Amino acid sequence: xxxxxxxxxxxxxxxxxxxxxxxxxxxxxxxxxxxxxxxxxxxxxxxxxxxxxxxxxxxxxxxxxxxxxxxxxxxxxxxxxxxxxxxxxxxxxxxxxxxxxxxxxxxxxxxxxxxxxxxxxxxxxxxxxxxxxxxxxxxxxx
Length: 142
What we know:
Elements: H1 13-21, E1 25-29, E2 40-42, E3 44-47, E4 50-53, H2 62-69, E5 72-77, E6 80-88, H3 94-104, H4 110-116, H5 119-122, E7 126-130, H6 132-141
Antiparallel strand pairs: 1-2, 1-5, 3-4, 4-7, 5-6, 6-7
C-alpha cells in the first residue's frame, strides 16, 4: 500500500476543525481506473493534526477493502470536500482514538460506541490526509 508522506500532507487548520467536528464523513475511494466508488458514510474523529476513520464492520467491509486496493479518494465533511489519501493509523494511538469516539459520539448507546471501538473496528483505523497535489491545485486557483 502507498502511504502518504506525512511531511507533505496536512490539513488547513479551518478544514481540520470542520472535518473533525462533523458528525459524519462521506468517503469515496478510487477504483483502479481513477473513478470514484459510491461514497460511504462513516464517523470521523480528530486527533492532533489528523483525522481518523474506522470501518465498524472490520476488514470484511467492501468500502474498507476499496481503500486497501487504492488508498486515495474523496471526502466530504463539515462543508469541506477534498481529495484524500489514507494510511494505517499508528496503533499506539488506538486508546486515544477510542476515547475520541466515546467523547464525540457519547449521545449514542454504549453498544454502538463499543462496536466502533471493538478490536475488529480498531484494526481498520485509518488516518485521512489531504492529497498534496490537490492542495497545490486549490491554492493555485485562489
